[in-house]
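Incident log entry.

Two folding requests arrived from the same account within the same minute. Monitoring flagged them as a possible duplicate submission, but the sequences differ. Recording both here for audit purposes.

Request one:
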Amino acid sequence: MDLFEVHPPLTAKERAEKRRLMVRDFVALFTLVVITVAIGVLTYFLFSSFSRHRDVLARRWRANGERELREGHPDQAIDALRSALQYAPGQRDIEIELAMALAADNRNLEAMAYFNTLLETEPGNGLIHLQVARLAAKEGNAALAEEHYQQALDGTWGRDGYLQRLSVRLELAKYLISQKDYTRAQTQLRTASDNALNMPEKQMEIGELMEQAHDPSDALAIYLAQMRKKGAPIDAFVGAGRTAYALGQIELARRALERAVEHPEFAKQNPAEQQAVRQMLSDSQTILELYPDPNLSVRERAERISNDARIAHSRLTACFASANASGEMANLQGQWQQIPARVTVRMLERNPQLEQTIMSLVYDTEEQTAQVCGAPTGDDALLLKIAQAPLAVQQQ
């Protein structure tokens, strides 16, 4: 065949048929494309609708679980949070809340297993470590609790990490107080105080915890710092008065308690709290009236010493009569026999050491009779308070 053979031109009918076929193929291809696009768009919208619906259901079940947990229904919270996880599988926050609900329902083994599994995938999560610490504390495992409290302090927290760590440190301090580990609790509280210098409410909380941790000195320093601020809360004045009184700093206690009574919020305190403050203030004022202040005139000091000696000697006489006379009690009786029944100005002027001798005997009497005959009341209790820290009475 000749390669250069020329085909005859298409007839009009053939050209028309060819165009018809081309149009049909184009329409078929276009239709197929439109159908494919339509199916894709429909699939996308159906999937998006399903995803949105699934997210809505997950959030709804999670909210239900959180509400049940807040209201003290952990068993119902567990069911709700498990339903939430069916719609949002693998969501870490819901898994943590589910483990917390298990712990709240006292399903400790399940909760611990859940938390440990979570830690395997996120070992630095501070919240998970905190939950493990709480669970270990509840089970009485002090070593594990303290370990995870520390890891919670070192862990990651995301938003508000600074405040979260401060809360963890305070919780650790409370736990150490519950374990009577006061020294380590004090260390945590001092660190917390340094980290919360511009947080008055936290400072007040720390002050109260320091009192519980047998650290009234640091608690007093916090209360005094808060007292100096404008608009200081009444708790700062009451706390300062209470801790100063505990430390024997009676003049400081009196001043703080007077300001507490004058505080605008004092009238809003419950009657029992008001009575406690007023009683402590009254005791502080009486102690200052009993105390032989070196700044007083010789006459006034002699009158106080004579009155204190009378109170203490009466206490000794009553205690001696009601208890088996021990060697120390008999020795006190002998020492009292060498003291004048009434101290006069002339005696103090002639014998400056007499004041110290009498007051030392007064303090010894109150302390020893308290051991033999039990806690004193009235003025004897106030003299015993002075005896515990006589040099602190007038500190301000």
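Request two (distinct sequence, not a duplicate):
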Amino acid sequence: MYTKNFSELIYSSDIQEDFIFKLKIHHNIFSKSIKSGTIYLDKYIFTDQPVEGAKICNISEGDIIAMLEKDRLEVKKKEGIKVKRKVILIAENDKNNIKLFDSISDCIAFLNTIAPSNKTTLYRYIKSGKSYHGFIGQ
């Protein structure tokens, strides 16, 4: 996965399922981009061949997943599609421990299994970038 101008390599894998299951990219979209060069989320492009001269980005898998989720939300908002507030929690001590929630309520239900939690406090911690019950929210 490269930036659309092929200047940076964001993510690579020899296994197509990594893109589909780890990065949550629909298989049809992924396949179409490989075959035709379609740009994904107006920012990324997939290829099955390495691109010479592309800078390799050292971004964790968790950060890539979070970045793609934010980009998907931006595209939906631009297109006027109503979206619930999705929440991504990344464990403070393990950047590969990522929890994705379809709503604030689902996230609060999970956090309540760790310690008492509420929406207002969660919003505040997400906005500040501080850890809440061991997780950084986005």
